[in-house]
Every structure is written in structure tokens, then in C-alpha cells.
Amino acid sequence: MIKSMTGYGVGSHENAKVKYTVEIKSLNSKFLELGIRLPKAVSDKELTLRGECSKLIERGKVNVLISSEYADQTAKASSINRELLKKYYNQLKDIAAQLGEDQTGLFNLALSMPEVIANNEDEVDEEEGKVLLNAFYQAVESFTGFRMDEGKVLKNDLEKRVELILDYLGQVEAVEGDRIPLIRERLSQYMDEAVGKENIDKNRFEQEIIFYIDKLDITEEKVRLRSHCNYFLEALNAADSNGKKLGFISQEMGREINTLGSKANNANIQQIVVRMKEELEKIKEQLLNVL
Fold it and tell me: Which enzyme class (predicted)?
């Protein structure tokens, strides 16, 4: 079953102390382009999260947004080292007095000195890290479900368009019966007008006709195109289906359709080939969204 590269999922988990919410969004991309925004308190989990995203999300332009909410809103508030602040302030006052400088603003200066204000977000216990990861895995599960639902829509559309190409191939086979006789008649008429019927070497003419018609034969192209279409449908329904593989098959389909058009030498077949190409372009556009 294919999955869409576009996805959205939210997960949250909490304990008595903190609640983490994780939101995952993705758009299509050839590779994994990952952006993670998380609280400073759990910044040490970023490498772990990146590794899990690479494994579970695979490809896409992915944004992961993580937020936290504490039961005790003061639990993560910054604290002031009172003794250190007093020490800085008194030292600054002494130096200012010795130099005869203005002492205005010394308190704010002391407040900005190193380690006066301690940010408690830097201290996270192991239990809080587990809460974050549980929220992340919930978000991934929701995100994957979204991708699978979108993948079903894509699958139905792709199947419909490949079936249309096969229908068009049937139309080509229905009209190509008159193709060779018309080519033979046209060439014969041209030779009669160019050199005269009595001057034509019938044996040589037949040899040239056979050679020319052989060059315009589309049997192999029809067989290969039908084979590629059936293989595409098989791959689409396979357990390990993926967008890159389907993209390669669609390229092969395109080659056969182009050759059909160039060898057709028939207005009706060329019109059908144009419709095939239209469907193939829509298939290629949809495959950009397939994981």
C-alpha cells in the first residue's frame, strides 16, 4: 500500500509534572528535509528524534514542533543567585567609588553578570524525556495514518489512469488493422505516379514495402507498454510499494508511448497516443506526492 508524502499528525503525553505536545507536518520532497523546534529543556533529545524521523518518516519536507506545559508554572521559572548578585553589586560599587564614577545602573549591570540568573530548563530528569518520546511516537502514529489515508486516494487515481492507458492501447489495436493496407496503397499510388506502373520492379517493390512496414511495426511497443502497465499496477498494490519504483516504471511506459507515436504513421493512432501522454503526465504529477 502506497503512502502520501503529505501528512499531518499530533500526539501528546503527560505525567503529574509536565505535558508534551508534538505536531508533525510534511510536504513532498525527494529527500528527508527535517526541521525540529523543541524546548531548550529537551534539546539533548534532538539527535534521537532525528534518527527516529529518518527511520519512521523516511522522506518529505518535515516540520516537527514540540511544546511543553508544566503543571507547576513556576517549576521552570528562572531563579536568582542572591549571594552572587550581592557580591557582584558590592564589588562594582567599591570599584565605582575608587574611580569616582557614577553608581547609577550598577544593580542592572550586576544582574546581567554570569550565573546570576539560573535557567531551570537546563535540568530535565529521565522521566520527562520519556514523556516527550511517548508524545512523539503518538504523533508519528497519527501522521502515518494520515499518510495512508491520502495514499488510498492516490492509489485509486493512479489505478484509474493506468487503466485508461490500457483502454487507449486497446483502441490502438482496434484501428491499426487498416494501417498497413493504407500504407501499402499510398506507396503504390506514389510509385505509379512517380515512375509509371509499367516501370516498377514488382519484386523489388515488395521487398522495399516489407522493409518499410517492418520499420513501422508497433507490435513490440504494444507488448512492452501493456507489460509495463501491468507491472505498475502490481507494484502499486505490493506491500513494499514506493514512489521511486513507480516513477521508474512510468518512465518506461513513457518511452513505449513515445515510440508508438513516432512509428504510428496514422492520424487516429497519433490522436490516441496524445491522450495516453496526457494520462501519463497526470500519473507523473501524482507520483511526486507518493512516498
Answer: hydrolase
